[in-house]
Amino acid sequence: MAEVEHTDFEAVFQGMTCIARETKLETRAVDIGEITLNQTPGPGALEVRDLFSEREEPPPGHVIGVELPSGTFPVQLCLFTDPRGASTREVVAAARIVFDRAAIAEWRNLPDLYDRRLHPAYEYPGHGVDSGTSALVAATSPPRRVPLFDEPTTDEIATGVSVYRWPGRPDVLAFTAGYGGGGEFYAAWGGYDERGRIVQLAIDYEALTDAHWEYVDLPLPFTSDGVAHDLVALLGVTPVVEGPARLRLDGDVARLWSGTLLDERGEPLADPAHARVSPTPRAPRGTAPFAQLFDISNRPPESRRLRLRLYLGRRPLR
């Protein structure tokens, strides 16, 4: 499995300075209101989803699959100023609901109530974002649809960061997600105290994390002994040699992004068109077992190794 790490929530909400690509970033917490959760005991009291998607099939929401406290609780955003783009703007690093001020002993990725909607790379639950916003939507009995035909009130709390509220609906609160872009997928985490109580719920927008990459070099032509590698095995991937120039990778391989052909000196081939090798999926993403095929039958004769680029997840900036 890929590493499932998260933003250092406690540090960033307290105010943290970190370095990203030689740029100093400073975080701060902003109170944006409250959310009311009223439900009989049991999981499913809250869904995190994109309310403003205009797609016919909106991105998946995340129905929190653990029991949450009932009541009215404060909601905060963690912001930082990012000067690295074309213009300086504010970014949402994380959002959180604070149920209790008790110290947090551990963070756990929160399951989906229906055991579905898995992140395609990490295989953990989360919610998709098209419109650049996330919403906290509390379950009600009987259920009430959020009246999107009514315009919400909009409060721009920082440059590029907005909060949306619906009058008379304390059970709904929406806000800018991450950098405010679409096509993203974000996980929710529960902060638990030493007694095992959930005291915070945080959404990680991964803006204060960095991708973690590793590389594996496999000799050519492929042989059963040559493709055995500790890192590949650790990730739960089974390499299957289908021929001297055909390698199938079975299992948890959604993070195997590409391959590069190397010469006898261990350098990428001079012609980028010949050096880069993209795998062919053998089954649709999200199905099990998943597989990818590297077929380099037409490789240049100077090829000596195939370098696999492995995406192992994201790690928090410190």
- State the shape: elongated
Count the DSSP helices.
3
Give a quick account of the main beta sheet: strands, pairing sense, barrel closure: 8 strands, antiparallel
Distance from N terminus to C terminus (CA atoms, Å) equals 23 Å
Question: What is the CA-atom radius of gyration, in angstroms?
Answer: 23 Å
Please state roughly what percent of the residues sit in beta strands, choosing from under 5%, 5-15%, 15-25%, 25-35%, 35-45% or over 45%. over 45%
Q: Structural class from helices and strands?
A: mainly beta
Helix percentage: under 10%
Q: Could you list the spans in which at least 5 consecutive residues all have pLDDT below 50?
A: 284-288
SSE succession? HEEEEEEEEEEEEEEEHEEEHEEEE
Q: How many E strands?
A: 22
Mean pLDDT: 84
What are the SSEs and their pairings?
Elements: H1 9-14, E1 17-20, E2 23-37, E3 46-49, E4 62-63, E5 71-82, E6 89-98, E7 106-109, E8 127-129, E9 133-138, E10 153-158, E11 161-165, E12 172-176, E13 184-192, E14 198-204, E15 209-219, H2 230-234, E16 237-243, E17 246-251, E18 256-262, H3 272-275, E19 276-277, E20 280-281, E21 291-295, E22 305-316
Antiparallel strand pairs: 1-2, 2-5, 3-4, 3-9, 5-6, 6-14, 7-13, 8-13, 9-12, 10-11, 11-12, 13-14, 15-22, 16-17, 17-21, 18-19, 18-22, 20-21
